[in-house]
What does this fold into?
Amino acid sequence: MGNMPEPLSVDSLIEQAFDIAVFVDDALTVTAISVSPDAPSLGCLDHWIDRDFQSFLTIESREKFALRIAQMRANPSIAPRPIELNHKDNANWEFPVRYTLHRESGREGILLLGRDMQPLAEIQQRLVREQIAREQEVEKLRGVETCYRVVLEASETPLVLVEPDSGRIRDINSTAAHILGSKRDMLTGNSFAQAFEGQRRDNFADQLKASAASDDMTGVEAVVRRNGRMVRLIPHLFRASGEILMLCTLTVIEEEDAARPESSQSLSALFEASSDAIVLTDGNGAIRDANEGFLVLADAAQLRDVQGRSMADFLSRGTVDLKLILDNTRKTGRMRSYTATLQSVVGTRAAVDISAANLRVRTADLGFGLIIRDVTPRDAPLVQDSGAAVSDEAMRNVMDLVGTASLKELVSATSDVVEKMCIETAVRLTNNNRVAAAEMLGLSRQSLYVKLRKYGLVNAQDGD
It folds into this structure.
């Protein structure tokens, strides 16, 4: 056998082969320590000497280290197996070290040779952070996809997402599937051209691409294979994650519209040229469109001055008038005549007669259409609300009382007459709707019933 290396050479070999070497006696007190210069993250640990090695371990590592020492003492011939310990110093700085434990022959105590695990721990932590970030990103994508699915399915507009190159349906909502006479699951992934009569995949895809590239937005007309419906497809190209996709909206072409295109143009021309005011509102009475006749009557310079505003803003009794018009029209489908006072944007008033219709196409509610005719007498300097003026006979009755009593007594005696006339007018305007009449007069429903009985305006068959 050759000669063993000198002790100094052994120390140098240990420093090069391991990041840290610690020698503890049987009481587990550190008697010597060496840190490799290639492990600067460990710092200087000379303050460990003459101190209990376990005081520099975390609670979990103390239990693990004590168990390993007990095993070595119970069986001195046990082969040294690695053990990972987490150290902490007085500054609460923690770092992991992977040790192997060795007994030196002829010397009491244990030699711990360790590798610094901080670089590996940092890599593991980075991998964990990246994994968590990846899972969060996947969860976010799932949320976005869920929102996309909900919006697509909830949309009343028939939508089809098509791959332009392959011509296959990427996605479709139930509304579009119903028009095509099938179900979403059966259509998704299939050729879009197969849903239509006489269409070949390549030719049909070229038509859609050409239509999407043009500016006229006329779309492509086709006949649905399953039900024979004529539909118009309006395609839109867009890019998502570098991939070109096509979104197609479907519109069923009604036979009446196809047969009478000139009638639609004539109705549009009539809407614009009519001297009567025509207003189109949504279901709540907000103005969507109005012709020139209404702009003149409302003293509005342009459509945007009235568009989006409630029709109640232009009626003298506001929401009371609008509620009566919409409720009655919604019940019967149309209302022939309603007398009201229209108030312009500058405050002038005009007596008007309003007719209304509930605009519906099959099951779709398109709102209301109002035709407003100015019925103001040309020689009248001021327009008053219909039914609000005192009749000639009532005025003569009041005049006959002059001279027979004081003004205060006259006012007291005639107030009941005026009150009765106002209540009668409100009941008549609301078509005997007591709730609407009470709202119009600013009374509670109970107060209105009391006054109706007072003036004998409640029929014997009427109940409370």
Residues 118-154 form the longest helix (37 residues). Residues 1-5, 380-390 have pLDDT under 50 and may be disordered. The domain at 155-253 is CATH 3.30.450.20 (Beta-Lactamase). The longest strand covers residues 349-361.
